[in-house]
UniProtKB/TrEMBL annotation:
EC number(s) from the headed UniProt entry: 3.1.6.8
Taxonomic path: Eukaryota, Metazoa, Chordata, Craniata, Vertebrata
Protein name as it appears in the record: Arylsulfatase A
InterPro entries, sorted: Alkaline_phosphatase_core_sf (IPR017850), Sulfatase (IPR050738), Sulfatase_CS (IPR024607), Sulfatase_N (IPR000917)
Pfam families: Sulfatase, Sulfatase_C
Cofactor: Ca(2+)
Function: Hydrolyzes cerebroside sulfate.
Signal peptide region: 1-19
Gene Ontology, cellular component aspect: endoplasmic reticulum; lysosome
Keywords, ordered alphabetically: Calcium, Disulfide bond, Endoplasmic reticulum, Glycoprotein, Hydrolase, Lipid metabolism, Lysosome, Metal-binding, Signal
Single GO molecular function: cerebroside-sulfatase activity
Main location: endoplasmic reticulum
One example of a Gene Ontology biological process annotation: lipid metabolic process
Protein location: Endoplasmic reticulum; Lysosome
């Protein structure tokens, strides 16, 4: 090789390259229990696509949400901030709620859109509708939206078909609201929603959005917030009657099918190797529905509680060639999603207080998390009590406990609504590595010297956190105005029953 050839070779090898920013897909299940997926130990769930993601990606064992209800956890997920800061605490938003995610809050979509990303959301929003759709996703950084503004049980459903050809929705639904509206951006295109064709419509939307982004050579951020497996369960013809777990299993299979379709779409447009797919759930299972409500596996209680069954979630990160297959026991939270996406994409971090950590090192290097503690708020938090529980390393301390109606029917009396608010001094303390079910209180026989130090550390962490936390004005407490319920024919009468249309 001549000197000229060597110089040319070095110029080519050492020339700076501009890597394409990665595409991001964030998939969120609704009320999925820690023990519901096959890859998390369920013996009869049929979830081959999620199982494959877990096999070829990174599966988390200790991934948490900040609260055990829909609205608070979704606010934290999209902002990287505790729900108390944005005012989305005290239960959940309803169809006629005056409040919603404040427009001053900065979402992941807004951060990535400002960085040149195409952004879209499909599925369940549940962060407010408001006057004239003030709080819809299209006002929060999402350029496209196909979905519903709140939970699909918050509408009459008793006469609707949930499973073809004519299986009616069987779980209890709210009768006094308008029929469930399906939005395309800010326009209602169907009311009530046709459940038997909803998920296939979502899948088609996903393919169309990705195709457009690829054609325009634009990186994309897709937030796919599935309705599955929240009640009332539903599914299209392809999945009806196909599972071993009845209606719940059919809905879970359809969720899994959407994951499979997503991966096929990424492969079809040759962007799979440059796309991070992150899958998790908003909170634990609704056990009051028994076998139609899911399971938290070996974890204690479920939705509505600060026990691990309510707040520990399945989570899988998949990125071929970048994330090595494996299992991580590192602590992580939905709060970590926004700062991690910022780090991976090179976007500008919002100039606000963030409560999450960048877990890029965990994803790409199999390294340790910067997160050493996680704090858990109840359904109805207040500044006097502060957080109910703190996870610190492998330990979890409960300063307050309370059951919830969404954790009914299990044999554990601590989960039921009859388990009233109880203060614990000293706190209940569990070693979650050896006792993930939170059965054996380490302090039941008194505090040993080694545990004394642990408790001092945890109490200090709680006190510091509670002191620094700010509570924004409660958006839920702003109340309800039935006139704000979305209606495709706003001048019709009598409401809410006249709000019906299809296109």
């Amino acid at each position: 090789m001549t000197a000229q050839q060597i110089l040319l070779y070095l110029c080519l090898v050492l020339a700076p390259t501009t890597a394409k920013p990665p595409n991001i897909v964030l998939m969120l299940a609704d009320d999925l229990g820690y023990g519901d997926l096959s890859c998390y130990g369920h013996p009869s769930s049929l979830t081959p696509n999620l199982d494959q993601l877990a096999t070829q990606g990174l599966r988390f064992t200790d991934f948490y949400t900040t609260g055990s209800m829909c609205t608070p956890s979704r606010a934290a997920l999209l902002t990287g901030r505790f729900q108390t800061r944005s005012g989305l605490y005290t239960d959940v938003l309803l169809p006629g709620s005056r409040g919603g995610l404040p427009l001053s809050e900065i979402t992941t979509a807004e951060v990535l859109q400002a960085h040149g990303y195409s952004t879209a959301m499909v599925g369940k929003w549940h962060l407010g509708y408001g006057a004239n759709g003030t709080f819809l996703p299209t006002h929060q950084g999402f350029q496209r939206f196909l979905g519903v503004p709140y939970s699909h049980h918050m509408a009459p459903c008793q006469n609707l078909v949930c499973f073809p050809p004519d299986i009616k929705c069987f779980e209890p639904c709210d009768e006094n609201y308008v029929s469930l509206p399906l939005f395309w951006n800010e326009q209602i295109i169907q009311q009530p929603v046709d459940f038997t064709h909803l998920e296939p419509m979502y899948d088609a939307f996903v393919e169309c959005f990705i195709a457009d982004a690829v054609e325009n050579s634009t990186p994309f951020f897709l937030y796919f917030a599935s309705h599955h497996p929240h009640i009332p369960q539903f599914a299209s013809e392809e999945y009806t009657g196909k599972s071993l777990r009845g209606h719940y299993g059919d809905a879970l299979m359809e969720l899994d099918g959407s994951v499979g379709q997503l991966i096929e779409t990424l492969q079809k447009f040759k962007v799979e190797d440059n796309t991070l797919v992150f899958f998790t759930s908003d909170n634990g299972p609704d056990t009051q529905q028994k076998f139609n409500g899911g399971t938290s596996g070996l974890l204690k209680c479920g939705k509505g509680t600060t026990y691990d069954g309510g707040v520990r979630q399945p989570a899988i990160a998949y990125w071929p060639g970048r994330i090595a297959p494996g299992v991580t026991h590192e602590l992580a939270s939905i709060l970590d999603i926004l700062p991690t996406f910022v780090s991976l994409t090179g976007a500008t971090k919002p100039n606000v207080t963030l409560d999450g950590y960048d877990i890029t090192h965990v994803l790409l290097k199999g390294g340790h998390s910067k997160r050493k503690s996680i704090f858990f708020y109840p359904v109805f938090p207040n500044q006097t009590q502060g957080v109910f529980a703190v996870r610190y390393g492998k330990y979890k301390a409960h300063f307050f406990t309370q059951g919830n109606q969404h954790s009914e029917t299990t044999p554990d009396e601590d989960c039921s609504r009859t388990a009233t608010l109880t203060s614990h001094d000293p706190p209940l303390l569990f070693d979650l590595d050896s006792d993930p079910a939170e059965h054996y209180n380490l302090l039941a026989g008194g505090i040993t010297p080694d545990l004394q130090q642990i408790m001092e550390n945890i109490t200090l962490e709680k006190d510091k956190f509670d002191t620094k936390m700010t509570f924004g004005e409660s958006q839920v407490a702003k109340g309800i105005d039935p006139q704000l319920e979305p209606c495709c024919n706003p001048t019709c009468t009598p409401k809410p029953f006249c709000c019906r249309c299809s296109s």
